Amino acid sequence: SLELSRKAAAVKPSSTLAITAKAKELRAQGKDVVGFGAGEPDFNTPENICDAAIQAIHDGFTKYTPASGTNELKEAVSRKFKSFNGLDYAPDQIVISNGGKHSLTNIFTALINPGDEVIIPAPFWLSYPEIVKLAGGVPVIVKTTKEQSYKLQAEDLKKAITDKTKAVVLNTPNNPTGMLYTEQELRAIADVVVESDIYVVADEMYENLVYGDQKHISIASFGKEIYDRTITCSGLAKSYAMTGWRIGYTGSSKEIAKMMSSVQSHQTSNPNSIAQRAAVEALNGPQDSVAKMHAEFDKRRQYMYQRICAMPYVSTIEPMGAFYVFVDVSDVLGKDYKGTKIEDTSKMAEILIEEYNVAVVPCADFGFADHIRLSYAISLEQIEKGLDRIETFLKELK
Ligand code: PLP
């Protein structure tokens, strides 16, 4: 038979989406499942944003827009970049896309020639290596350690750079770890990037979800040399509970923005016109609903962290951003559960879903096989119930 695309065949299906689907299936069978797999806020999109979309429909704002997004939205993003991130990106340096994933696809399409290497620190959000491969690049995984709070060290970056390296991916606040890079850490990485003349893909999708005293810092804000080598990527999905609306954006040099917008003009044309209007309201309108969601996430985060710290065989570092807790379960592996040996985190996840109705994300596909990810984008009540069940499971281990 005719051979299909090797590039497409090499792509793994998203395991997080599979876990969500499994939990849904069990729920449909009437099981009381607690799903810690969620990658999206459990809140509704704020009403003022929904109203702006409805108004856009009534206004007939239902036609093609410029392929890289409306000027109105680019101006709103430009203002946000300035006031929130301390970054100067003029509207013609901004490309609006169909979600953060699409922005990342555009970025790697614009940067990569066949065989170019992209350094991805592990643990990583599972889509990065797949998107890089689809763009013809070679993902180079650099493993971090728990002692480093799972953050890429400048010296390890330096060691991983070859003459094929095109870019490094930096995700802060981080999925799956919930960690934030400090200014000092980012400056050290920026120095290596400038010295080695590579690009940084700064994925700041969770920038609004930062807890405690530490602030979110954008690596491109440190000066012209690093600014010129950074593509900053973010979106509306996580900050404004707008996952289904599909709006992401990038700030980059004009040259890269122009390339991405040409690519996008052939592949998808503009992002949904109605969602673009809604995004303008999200960025320019009142931010009180964002503050409310933030406060609720923070409450859950603290509760979860304390509970997990008190459980046997597992440990975690206090997460300071996004809505995930990254749990080290290496001491669970090799233990016996009612006569079954727990060989890996998939087995652990299987027992948890089948015997305890709890869905968790094993992190092998995130480049960290002895950890699991728990999301707190579910109600405190659900979290409490789910953690009770996990604790019962852990107490069964021998
Ligand atoms: N970047 C990170 C780190 C993410 O976790 C996600 C979503 O899970 C995205 C980007 C993409 O977000 P979206 O495509 O929904 O805008």
From TrEMBL:
Molecular function terms, GO-annotated: transaminase activity
Endpoints of the signal sequence: none
CDD domains, alphabetized: AAT_like (cd00609)
EC number: 2.6.1.-
Keyword Transferase part of the UniProt annotation: yes
UniProt KW keywords: Aminotransferase, Pyridoxal phosphate, Transferase
Highest taxon, organism lineage: Bacteria
Entry-linked InterPro entries: Aminotransferase_I/II_large (IPR004839), AspAT/PAT-like (IPR050596), NHTrfase_class1_PyrdxlP-BS (IPR004838), PyrdxlP-dep_Trfase (IPR015424), PyrdxlP-dep_Trfase_major (IPR015421), PyrdxlP-dep_Trfase_small (IPR015422)
Residue ranges of domain Aminotransferase class I/classII large in the record: 31-390
Cofactor: pyridoxal 5'-phosphate
Family: Belongs to the class-I pyridoxal-phosphate-dependent aminotransferase family.
Protein known as: Aminotransferase
Organism: Jutongia huaianensis
Higher taxonomy: Bacteria, Bacillati, Bacillota, Clostridia, Lachnospirales
